[in-house]
């Protein structure tokens, strides 16, 4: 009995396609894993490092708030501003009342 030596083209094509698909899946999976690890590493570095400029800005703003004193408006002034606007909320902050002894 003679042995046939024919090329099995469909089998070779199927193995080639499956190999190519698996290669793509492994490549994309490896790249996604690398990107996730890189993002985690960058996030860890940001969490561990202190932003000196931001810290100084926050401290300056807190000092400015404490230096300015209370930032509340008495209810009488708020009601007066509301009445002057005709029952609508004013678009800008109300102008403070002039000091005592000034023109009205």
How are the SSEs ordered, and which strands pair?
Blueprint: H1 9-48, H2 52-68, H3 75-84
Describe the structure.
The chain is an all-alpha fold and about 100 residues long. The chain has a domain at about 15-85. It has 3 helices and no strands. The protein has helices spanning about 10-50, 50-70, 75-85. It is elongated and about 125 Å long. The N and C termini lie far apart (about 125 Å). The model has no long low-confidence stretch (mean pLDDT about 85).
Structural category:
mainly alpha
Assess the beta-strand content as a share of residues. under 5%
| Uncertain regions spanning at least 5 consecutive residues | none
Helix content: 55-70%
Number of strands: 0
Cα end-to-end separation: 123 Å
Mean pLDDT: 84
Radius of gyration: 37 Å
Q: What's the SSE pattern? A: HHH
List keywords for this structure.
0% strand, 104 residues, mainly alpha
């Amino acid at each position: 009995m003679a042995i046939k030596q024919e090329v099995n083209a469909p089998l070779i094509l199927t193995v080639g396609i499956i190999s190519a698909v698996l290669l793509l899946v492994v490549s994309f999976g490896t790249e996604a894993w690398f990107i996730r690890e890189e993002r985690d590493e960058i996030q860890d570095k940001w969490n561990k490092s202190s932003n000196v400029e931001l810290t100084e800005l926050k401290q300056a703003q807190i000092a400015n708030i404490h230096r300015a004193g209370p930032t509340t408006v008495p209810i009488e002034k708020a009601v007066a501003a509301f009445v002057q606007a005709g029952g609508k909320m004013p678009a800008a902050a109300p102008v403070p009342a002039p000091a005592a002894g000034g023109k009205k």
